[in-house]
Amino acid sequence: MSSTISAATFKLNDQAALSPAQQSLEHQLLTFIRTHRQQKQPSLFVIHGDAGTGKSAVLAAAFARLQALNRSLTPNDLQATDNYLVVNHNEMLKIYKRLAGEDPVLRKKDFQKPTPLINRLAKEHRQADVVFIDEAHLLLTQPDRYNRFTGHNQLTELINHSRVVVLVFDTRQVLKLKSYWHSNDLKPFLDQYPHANYNLDEQFRVTGGADVVDWIDGFTRGQLQPKPVSDNFDLRFFDDGQPLYDLIKQRDQQYGLARMVATADFPYVVNHGTWYVTAGQLKLPWDKVNLTDDPWALRPETLNEVGSIYTIQGFDLNYAGVILGPSVGYDEDHDRIVVRPERYEDQEAFKNRTDLGDLRPLKQQIIFNSINVLMKRGRYGLYIYAVDPALRQRLLAL
């Protein structure tokens, strides 16, 4: 296994670690930047791909290559350019800044959250040369006072202040109404600007092959398929949360990077005491607010906590123990997974929108998206406990 950091996040070793498809993408990206950087209007390069297809890995590798050319003492066409990598995700930003400390061509200031960068570029009346956006589906699509964003769409603002924008986009990882993107919401941007699209479809995280990925994909569309059998991937269902947690602790001791995670179905208020996740006999605290520079999954004490979609999105684990809370149920008449937004405890995710029409199907999709994010964390194993008794029995019957 590679170093703890690369194993815990996205593969960020060297050029040899990139697949042929990723190397091709990196080459196309830099060619696109060279071609479009001097043009009068902004240009967009969009990378599509499901969770675990290596989008962040190739984005980080391409950005490091760009900054190496930017800071090179040898004259070249990308020397002395003004470039940033943006991500609207605190835990992923920590990883990028940590990597910057290990790479001589990167600086911590190269990595930003979107609102501070937008506000600074606007105040200074200037354009960046290239802005990379990881997890662009987390960008806000409405004003947000809490985040000091007064515009209407963060992608619009970043395009307005950049010559080239490179963005990673996956609508199946949208987790909040305030950053809700429909699958065709990029179209107006692509119609307006010169652009290129690239689709990464090779699964790098989940080692169980297509059968395991298809099973998870089916589950997040409400379908229950027969349990896949894989020599490379340990998929198990549990009748109680305690033996699941005992196995996660054992896996962490054996291989490292095994953690418990759960859907946002258990009450939690930031900075108001300790809040718990319950799964049968198991009772563990939710993850605490992380004020350290170390991402949640890399801190040993978090083996005794339950992570959320917000602490684990974008990261690799070796083994993931997933607790499906009360919002995830089972319809016996139709043999389908159902989700119940009224049981979902993440109030921030469902803050009201008046511009999106009927919100119930969008809320249901957000819950399915969160399940997709959680179930695709583990490289070598996925262990599942369902709080809903009917769903639990149906899973055990698989």
Structure description:
The protein has 2 domains: 4-200, P-loop containing nucleotide triphosphate hydrolases (Rossmann fold), CATH 3.40.50.300; 210-397, no CATH class. The protein is an alpha/beta fold and 398 residues long. The chain has helices spanning 4-8, 20-36, 55-70, 90-102, 114-123, 154-160, 187-192, 210-219, 241-255, 309-312, 360-375, 389-397, and strands at 43-49, 83-87, 111-112, 128-134, 162-169, 195-200, 234-237, 258-262, 276-279, 282-285, 306-307, 317-324, 328-331, 336-339, 378-386. The strands form 4 sheets. The protein has a 6-stranded parallel β-sheet with strand order 3-2-4-5-1-6. The chain has a 5-stranded parallel β-sheet with strand order 7-15-12-8-11, sandwiched between helices. The two termini are 32 Å apart.
Q: What is the makeup of the main sheet?
A: 6 strands, parallel
Number of strands: 15
Tell me the β content.
15-25%
CATH fold-type name of the largest domain: Rossmann fold
> What is the first-to-last residue Cα distance?
32 Å
Coarse shape: globular
- Within the largest sheet, what's the order of strands? 3-2-4-5-1-6
Radius of gyration: 21 Å
Number of separate structural domains: 2
CATH architectural category of the largest domain: 3-Layer(aba) Sandwich
Number of helical stretches of at least 4 residues: 12
CATH class of the largest domain: Alpha Beta
Average pLDDT across residues? Answer: 90
Could you name the ranges where pLDDT drops below 50 across 5 or more consecutive residues? Answer: 1-9, 11-16
**Roughly what percent helix?**
25-40%
